Amino acid sequence: MNLIRIGALTLPHKAVFGPMAGFTDAPCRRLMAEHGAGFTVSEMVSSRALTYRDHKTLSLLRPATKGAPYGVQLFGEVPEIMGQAAAMIEGEDFDFLDINMGCPAPKIVSGGAGSRLMLHPELCGEIVAQVKAHTSRPVTVKMRKGWDDEHVTAVECAKACEQAGAALITVHARTRAQMYIPGIDLAVIRAVKQAVQIPVLGNGDIQTPADALTMLRETGCDGVMIARAALGDPWLFERVNAAIEGLPEPPAPNLQARMNAFRRQVEEMVELKGEYTAMPQARAQAIHYMKGLKGAAALRRAACSLTYLSDLDDLIDLVFTAQRKL
């Protein structure tokens, strides 16, 4: 099996963990790397905020425990500012720089960043060139299929990014107009893979090992990026990696293992950010751990009440009680 290389980095596996604002903090990334994610990426970081030396923004860069390569994702629409931001974090502990050209959030695209960049392939290349000129790390790009059905520009943007020095491209196979509506266009990933010489990852709607194998087979991409489906289920990486590598499917974790992972993740969040900040974020993480459990709807409602770290034991007790009763 040919491993994926990003510059001088060699990824341990072909399934990687994608960035998600509000979710992919250091404890979350540590968990995914521990279970086989080929790399992890920070929550997206504003290039402008970095140049203002914003303390909160800098805190997003804290690396997880090593175990897989770790990238910092920058967003912005001004090449010079993106380059300045890359230079400012050169002393931080990370392995590669990722450029966000895919975020569909209104507050991001309204300023010209994220998936709005897909309307301007030349600008995409200029941004990569500036970032590349100001960092010693490999530069990667995460993009979408395009802006809408009239502006499907992934191939043009990918070519511009490759020419400017990008080492890897991830393609989320939806336009910005589609947001996260189910249904992806595997053909656009295939088209990008055929158009560039650097590694290409496919992204979108990967829920199972079979989904990953289908994407690899039908697009020829080098690997897959998994994001939301792995929340609450980091073992998904073990299952996908086994399928890709032709190994037997690993046994599913029991309920105790799931709750142990959940507890450790939330405890690390509190240690990192403090209870006041961490516990509201832990509610969103908790909801994902309730997937597939008996009485999941009631458990999700209970998860939304997490306020203090001590509430965690009550929720976990409720989980075990619900599984015994139903």
UniProtKB/TrEMBL annotation:
Cofactor: FMN
Domain of life: Bacteria
Entries under Pfam families matching the protein: Dus (PF01207)
Binding-site residues, FMN: P19, M20, A21, Q73, K142, H172, A227, R228
EC nos: 1.3.1.-
Catalytic activity: a 5,6-dihydrouridine in tRNA + NADP(+) = a uridine in tRNA + NADPH + H(+); a 5,6-dihydrouridine in tRNA + NAD(+) = a uridine in tRNA + NADH + H(+)
Gene Ontology MF annotations: flavin adenine dinucleotide binding; tRNA binding; tRNA dihydrouridine synthase activity
Keyword annotations: Flavoprotein, FMN, NADP, Nucleotide-binding, Oxidoreductase, RNA-binding, tRNA processing, tRNA-binding
Role, per record: Catalyzes the synthesis of 5,6-dihydrouridine (D), a modified base found in the D-loop of most tRNAs, via the reduction of the C5-C6 double bond in target uridines.
Name used for this protein in its record: tRNA-dihydrouridine synthase
